[in-house]
Amino acid sequence: MTRLVRRSTLLLLLIFLPSVLLIRLQARDDDDATLRQSISPPADCPAPCLLGIRPGLTTMQDAQTLLNAHPWVKNVIFIDPINDPNTRYLFWDWTGQQPAWIDTRWQGELRSVYHIVRGIRLQTRLTMADIWLLFGPARTGTLVFGGQLPGLESTRGMVTTIGVYDHQGLLIRASLPRNTGLETFWRARVEIESSNEQALEYFSTYDNPAPER
Question: Any residues with CB less than 8 A from the CB of 27 and at least 6 apart, and which?
């Protein structure tokens, strides 16, 4: 079954590659090498790693220090949930030096549990087509219906597709209307999360659902 799903995914990618390319060219003008470099973990910071922070390893205190010193970041603030004393969030604004693929209308978000960073979430200007052309189709992932996961309550009535890119240490999310078509799928804006290994492994237990025509 897994092999069949992967073959179907690859076949869809090949069949619709011309339309994917067109959508991608319309959506942005970033250089592929620069884009891949700014998203992928650098050589001196193994995946998962984003903004110099390694989910699953970096402490909240060290993450705050790294963010305060980062040229893309300003106005770092803490948020403590009232009903969960073990979880903390950091939010920040963007300085204008960040890459063009980051959607600056949204703050960056970092979550920690028991003082260890668990994930870094960034809203992007990238589409699903961009991600597939940069990294290929995700080998594993899942679909979430109606805001069933924490932080996705606003997606009620929608379907959220989550792709796992374990080599980059990334979860790629896009929320779409139910019964969506392929063009809408390729044009969907994605959220990138650099996530801890436990989360990557959890979502990797699912076969990647290929988009259907």
Answer: 125, 126, 127, 129, 130, 187
Burial class (CB in 10 A: 0-12, 13-18, 19+), 127: buried
- Which H or E run contains 116? strand 116-127
In the block, residue with structure tokens 């010193």: 69
CA atoms within 13 Å, Cβ hemisphere of 14 = 6
Task: Identify whether the C-beta of residue 53 lies closer than 8 Å to the C-beta of residue 117.
Answer: yes
Tokens representing residue 117 in the block: 């960073």
pLDDT in tens, 149-197: 555 555 567 888 899 999 999 999 998 887 778 888 899 999 999 999 9
Q: What is the pTM of this model?
A: 0.79
HSE at residue 135, side-chain half, CA atoms within 13 A, is 23
Please write the tens of the pLDDT for every residue from 114-155.
999 999 999 999 999 999 999 998 989 988 886 555 555 555
The span from the CA of 6 to the CA of 75, in Å, is 43
